Amino acid sequence: MAPVTSLSDSVQQQLTSAISATLPEATADPLLRRSDRADFQANGILALAKKAKSNPRELATQVVSQIVTGDVIKDIEVSGPGFLNITITDKAITENLAARYADTDRLGVPRPERAGTTVIDYAQPNVAKEMHVGHLRSAVIGDALVQLLEFAGETVVRRHHIGDWGTQFGMLIQYLDEHPHELDHKAAEVTGEEAMSNLDRLYKSARKLFDSDEEFKTRARRRVVDLQAGEPHTLATWQKFVDESKIYFFSVFEKLDMEVRDPDIVGESGYNDMLDETCRLLEESGVAVRSEGALCVFFDDVKGPDGKPVPLIVKKSDGGYGYAATDLSAIRDRVFNLKANTLLYVVDARQSLHFKMVFETARRAGWLNDDVTAVQLAFGTVLGKDGKPFKTREGETVKLVDLLDEAVDRATTVVREKAEKVGLSEQEIEENGQYVGIGAVKYADLSTSAVRDYKFDLDQMVSLSGDTSVYLQYAYARIQSILRKAGDARPAAHPELALAPAERALGLHLDRFGETVLEVASAYEPHKMAAYLYQLATLLTTFYDQCPVLKAETPEQVANRLFLVDLTARTLQRGMALLGIRTPERL
Ligand code: ARG
User: Which of 271, 347, 348 is the pocket-test mutation for ligand 1 (most atoms within 8 Å of CB)?
Assistant: First the structure.
């Protein structure tokens, strides 16, 4: 299906040619924006006039005289010094929407011709550790960006940089070796929850022994050396922890209604073979230098509280590699093997200094440059209702799973209250409870700008009114119910019909979907997609108040309004899917 030129783009094109006909040497484009006074307002004329040393009002009048009105532009008038107010014809609105409607897959959203490859690093929990609310954000934001970028035409490679390596495994491996029966089962035999409780039990027992038994401690330390040397039996035991953890991770991602694929999980250990070479390259090029036995990279603007420079340590003085060496190796892999143009990291803002130093090091080494860039999408903290970092009443970090279960419970209650009226079966109630609960958690996360902290407030999240996913899901379900009730009437566009103001407002917003996708994907701002969808649902509510659908005046008007709401539903569904949120048919 052919992409659809949005109305704002076609107005923009007409303005651009009108301006170059008036002022051949003009370079700037007029800036089109939405306005309360008209459908669009162009406000770049003033600047153009200044440059050309001509009178803004005169220039504006000349530009207007070049515009052919009728087809798309109904009316264009000069307002104030150099502003142009533009009104679109009803016919152009309906025709544009009809073209979007015909493209079931993409709703007319174009695919940019020269898209690149983005490697996105997100959803990166740690082996043998419970996932907490901090891991929620990376997963939710990252998954939305994967969908948004792919829809916008980018080639996306997903990487889950799980924490699966380090000295902490020595103790665990040694313990499991001495108590082999403790993880003695087949993967298919345990649930995610059991897997996590196995790991937790093992961790606690190992820790207890480590703290009380000097000889065990010595054996555990020796195991770290074996692990780093890649001793086969030690590696095999380590693998058991990784596998057990994956059972748990996958269960959480499933609960989150999120696809995480095994081959995309390339944890810290995945770069072990590259660490030596990474360090050698950095040292040979002089990017890293020896300092007190360690291999370090220094930065003029990174200093500790004592004013002394704080280096990025690539190799410790004992020869061990840390988090930075792994990340630098991952950059080489992503740039040279995966051929990325963009490296995107969805990681907590508290790791910003780490990434700043890692990216700068990679730039000095020439691995990153003007053509291959790295960005950290640093997100803020999830806060409790009290505005402090989210903790249980006992002051412990909140388990992600508990939180998701509670969201689904609350949502199920909300769904159940209306279920009888809608005639939902028990199975539908449960399914919808999940879609609403998980959607609510995702939407709350995605509807505020990622850098900001947000309060985790389940009551607010599952509320039926206000800026919530439930509100959007109800808007969708309500349309489906109208379409079911339509009987023989079918949605069909009638461009010959005059539109009511609420229809025009809804229609113009629907036409903006493609622009919104591209904008959101290029600036990594899913909250703007959430805002777009909320606005869409709000315009739909106004439309319902003012424009009867099934009881409209003529059969043509019924068909046209059915077409408008159907396109609204498809746009809501597509937009919400891009955020990872489901739209139940009946709610
Ligand atoms: N596993 C880390 C954590 O839980 C996040 C990893 C982020 N990604 C990276 N390439 N360092 O904090």
Answer: 347
